[in-house]
Specification:
By secondary structure, the chain is an alpha+beta fold. 30% of the residues lie in helices and 20% in strands. It has 13 helices and twelve strands. The structure holds flavin-adenine dinucleotide and iron/sulfur cluster. Iron/sulfur cluster binds next to α8.
Length: 328
Amino acid sequence: MKPVSYLRAHSVEEAAAAHGGRAEARYLGGGTNLVDLMKLGVDRPEVLVDVSRLPLDRVEERPDGSVWAGATVRNSDLAAHPLIRERHPLLSQAVLSGASGQLRNAATTGGNLLQRTRCAYFQDLSKPCNKRVPGSGCAAIEGVNHDHAVLGHSPHCVATNPSDLSVALSALDAVVELAGPGGGRNVPVTEFHRLPGDRPDLDTEIRPGELITGVLLPPLPEGAVCRYRKVRERASYAFALASVAAVLQVEDGEIRHAAVAFGGLAHRPWRARRTEAALLGARPGPDVFAQAVRAELDEAVPLRDNAYKVSLAQDLATQVLDSLTAPS
Ligand SMILES: Cc1cc2nc3c(=O)[nH]c(=O)nc-3n(C[C@H](O)[C@H](O)[C@H](O)COP(=O)(O)OP(=O)(O)OC[C@H]3O[C@@H](n4cnc5c(N)ncnc54)[C@H](O)[C@@H]3O)c2cc1C
Ligand code: SF4
């Protein structure tokens, strides 16, 4: 068994210093993903810096009406927090659609944003995987790829990002706050996760040793309505085959703000910019929604086993958008 040293950090500075940007160090949030990967031998850190007790476990309102959620807020607490439920019910719906109650009680905001892909080949040490061992190949491209990406994939990796929370944060134009050796910086969630390109070993734009300290959610436009819906193989405790987060604001019969993000379709939460462009200024209606969603999904390149995801996402997003504007 490989020895691992463990340190519980009590401040952001102590955590960053203990990590030091070293390749063999990992921050530990709730451990619900990292510890599983360590048990499988997929991740083999020598140093664990436990950040779960950092004083970043609050959700609070900022003077400009933004809501800040700390990196160590547990997923259950995030979903249940009154500010999130009232201002950003989409985020509550997304978090509650993921994992199980027990997992959500342990998992943190920061850890959820950085959880690794659920590609079965990534977790199987006997199979080639460019994400686990760069340059070794991709077993999924010619393998069983029913769960894999239909948008933005590359010949090096066709994995999807599994996080429901990240899809909601993407549609909400949230910003990830980072602290690190080079100081603090903010990265929009829409730019935080990467497409695989020729570096699928890199999931995000995070730099060595950087710690997520929180996420900032700007206020939604006045009167905006939102919804998260997810399709999975079981009614609970399963990752998304496809999911959609949508925010719409309609004024005087015209769509004035539209934000749509897909989960389960790509290596990162997929912000549907073509759909949004087609919706802006349009009058809401099922045909308009269907056409706008199609504008995005026409870009999809399905693999052997997953063409079903394109029609699934088409119907799901059209229905969600329609439900947001249908008279109640
Ligand atoms: C059976 C099962 C089903 C699941 N189903 C779903 C689902 O349907 N939808 C979904 O979204 N998720 C699902 N999950 C995943 C779960 O949500 C994640 O495991 C969890 O969110 C990870 O959070 P954590 O705090 O435990 O992260 P950890 O396991 O502690 O860490 C994950 C990664 O984040 C890094 N990290 C942690 N905190 C920080 C920080 N503050 N700054 C920088 N790096 C950090 C770690 O180094 C590690 O690389 C499921 C998990 C399981 C086991
Ligand atoms: S899809 Fe990506 S994660 Fe899965 S085997 Fe291929 S390279 Fe690895």
